[in-house]
Amino acid sequence: MSTADPREPQTGPAPASGAPLLPELMRRATAHLAPVVPLLTELGELFAAQGHELALVGGPVRDAFLGRLSPDLDFTTSATPDETLAILRPWADAHWDIGREFGTIGARRGEHTVEVTSYRADAYDGQSRKPVVAFGDNLGDDLVRRDFTVNAMAMRLPSMEFVDPYAGLADLAARRLRTPGPPEVSFGDDPLRMMRACRFAAQLGVDVAPEVREAMRAMAPSIEIVSAERVRDELTKLLLAPQPRAGLRLLVESGLADHVLPELPALKLEVDEHHRHKDVYEHSLTVLDQAIALEGPPDGPESSVPGPDLVLRLAALLHDVGKPATRRFEAGGGVSFHHHEVVGAKLTAKRLKALRFDKDTVKAVSRLVELHLRFHGYGDGAWTDSAVRRYVTDAGPLLPRLHRLTRSDSTTRNARKAARLSQTYDALEVRIEALMEAEELAKVRPELDGNQIAAVLGIRPGPVLGRAYAHLLEVRLDRGIIGQDAVEQELRDWWAQQPESSAEPTGP
Residue 22 is part of which domain span? Predict the structure, then answer.
């Protein structure tokens, strides 16, 4: 690494083990930035004309070297937020200053969105959940306070001079994650950076440097000063990465998961000497991998579960979190996890709520966890059409995800057993398709609506009508479509057994 004063950024990377790849990375970056070079030059000239520095920085620079163009362009500048706004206002089609408190002004011109942030240094005071913002006065100070060397690269504008004082490009070529300064200082500035390290392990396939891992283990408890919303957002990005397993392992091994997702390390149940149950932690990571493999293409129909799908991935990761609380060693030498799906659904909902996930996500994921064992009652082939209807109705719009979660939950190494389970589920899906086509199960309703029920029984809307409706729904699920005459007779038979039937009819 260069020993130059970080206040005087150096061009070009320091020599490193990944050096042979650097010329190719430079060529790739140049090619991928070509479409936005006119915009970069124009913005650089606008700021220079007002006496300010401007540089493309962070993710867009890193992504250019990875051969991809970032949808948003991030800049850093010597200008204050007010000065930045004055420059961008006449240039942009639209602008906003909701990040002004943190020195950031956003703007859009054509198809491009830009964010320009004043040179700054974020730090926590050790107690607050929000960073304390202090603006800097030079690019070197700004870069040293960034999270990792691969994000501490910049390109001065309009000159397009590459600035890399901390050998970020060499680290990128070597797939290595380091911090520009001591990791303890970086994580002290913002503890969320420790979770970001886990996310980059998943997104970029990088190896986290030993000193960074050690600092993460030592400072893991400090993640608790970060707001649940920021933790949630990082966890979401990690799970939506192409290969989240590496990031999740680091989350657990660093001790961070003990504070943000304790249900995950809790899956590391001690396997007894007779190995009467599989390693639940490793099983859960494998289920996640297998669920990801079953996702549809991003532009596929909803029935294919287009990936990356957060609900499916959360359910796959958390489907067995009820096992630690329900494990019992039986007298005959076996082990049981009775009702772990019910317990797991409650634990899942509690954790996702604590992480401030939205209500729909909490409901969907916990429901999948609750239903993930339902299929195993089908294995003996004894399911009636009624049971299949209930399976579909209980899953509702989650059925495509439930199909994939259930298939992913088979991690046996016994090829014959795995094939048998797959064939059995194939048969269930065939039955579901046949019933859905014949009976429109996706829109299953009683054969009589509320008005018709009220007319048959001579009652008004209210709790009794609700009970009658629920009874006819059960009939629909148990017996399928039986016709209006038969269902009206079924309704009258049920009504004859109700205490309210002896009262005088009140009319609909």
Answer: 1-179
Smallest CA-to-CA distance from 161 within 10, 42, 59 is with 10
Token couple for 244: 């989240």
Model pTM score: 0.79
Give 249-295 as a DSSP string.
HHHHHTTTHHHH-TTTGGG-PPPPTT--S--HHHHHHHHHHHHHHTP
Residue 209 belongs to a domain with what CATH number?
Answer: 1.10.110.30
What does the pLDDT look like over 418-472, one tens digit per residue? 888 888 888 888 888 888 776 665 567 788 888 899 888 888 888 888 888 888 8
Tens of pLDDT, residues 254-281: 999 999 999 999 998 755 444 455 689 9
One-letter amino acid at 81 equals P
Residue 218, domain member (yes or no)? yes
| Nearest-10 crossing angle of helices 450-457, 484-496 | 60
Task: In whole angstroms, give the CA distance from residue 407 to residue 421.
Answer: 8
Q: How far apart are CA 371 and CA 364, in angstroms?
A: 11
- C-beta of residue 227 within 8 angstroms of C-beta of residue 354: no
Of the candidates 22, 201, 15, 42, which has an alpha carbon nearest to the alpha carbon of residue 110?
Answer: 42
On whether both 122 and 208 belong to a single domain, the answer is no
Residues 63 and 167 in one domain: yes
Q: Does some domain include residue 267?
A: no
Same domain, 160 and 192: no
Q: Are residues 149 and 211 in the same domain?
A: no
Kindly give the parts of the chain with pLDDT less than 50: 1-20, 272-275, 507-508
